Fold:
Amino acid sequence: MPYHHGDLRAALIDAAVDAIESDGVDRLSLRDLARRVGVSHAAPAHHFGDRTGLFTAIAADGFDRLVRELVASGGDFVAAGVAYVRFATAEPGRFAVMFRPELLREDDPALAAARDRAGDLLRAGAGAGAGAGAAAGDTRANALAAWSLVHGFATLWNAGAIDAPAGAAPDELARAVASRLFLRGTDAP
Amino acid sequence: MPYHHGDLRAALIDAAVDAIESDGVDRLSLRDLARRVGVSHAAPAHHFGDRTGLFTAIAADGFDRLVRELVASGGDFVAAGVAYVRFATAEPGRFAVMFRPELLREDDPALAAARDRAGDLLRAGAGAGAGAGAAAGDTRANALAAWSLVHGFATLWNAGAIDAPAGAAPDELARAVASRLFLRGTDAP
DNA sequence: AAGGAAACTTGTCAATGCCTAGATTGGTCG
DNA sequence: CGACCAATCTAGGCATTGACAAGTTTCCTT
Structure:
């Protein structure tokens, strides 16, 4: 094992994401992380400072990934919502950290930038998709409703609170659920 | 200070809820909790066994309180949703634990019972409120959409992710957001 | 080749969770 | 009334952890 790891920072983040996914955030130990990667117990501190720094790095990276998924999904509201849910359920270890301010260094520039990018994207997507059928001026409430819906679904799914048939895909169920929003006159009797 | 505290169990839960609310779940220390209440460092273990036991007790109590709020809100969907949000935002310390399986002893009877009561109530409320205007057979998706919406809103609010005007009441904003669900034909052009 | 910065290690300390054993109290039954 | 007994709480100890300080190895630039 060479003295220099190569890309220890990324390896630590990967290991941390895996550990969070299987055991939860608060059972994550920096020393155990170092053991898994095969470095000394103080190596993580050099890259992240402390626990908070590690979580902050994971969250910033997570928002970047989320942005990429949202962009790739196209502009449509439902598609963006499905992409949001797919990201959250496919990467629960990352998602579990992204909306937990107590765990994060809020003034971190990388985190703030990545989060802002994601926020702009979400607002724009929801406003565009929903604005067509709704009264003007409600776009803020509409965007908030859309974000709340997909965020809540993803959170509940990751918590195991939604009992779906075995093998069901969360993003497909999310599509059915998200389309309940902003039902138009055509669906009414 | 008497040897017997009187109601140490409740006092520990109260102190834990306060601590979680201000510092987050994972910064909660059983020893610090004991110090705040004025008992020895091993006293909490007698009542809860371990950390997981404490969180489980908090969650079970939380679901009981949520059930009471939902019942008191009346049968209407929007009212129940607003009550859900009000509970979650008024008791963030309790809510922060209730949907975190890694923190809980899932097989605890009290927790399972309280959670089931809350679940039944949520399904019934959402189904009744939304069924009127939606196609039959979609009640499951409708209930899920409603629950996801309010849960997501509450989660995002507690995370500080929603930038509302200073002093804004979360449950009022939630009412505006929740009414975006299941818009009927009358609202469409 | 030399020097400095970056990456990583070793050692240490207070604090924590959990375990075992002991002390104190309140109730219960003769 | 008094003796037991279970429940409640205390005391002590151990392995592990996060954070800090100081030293060592490697890489990069000039």
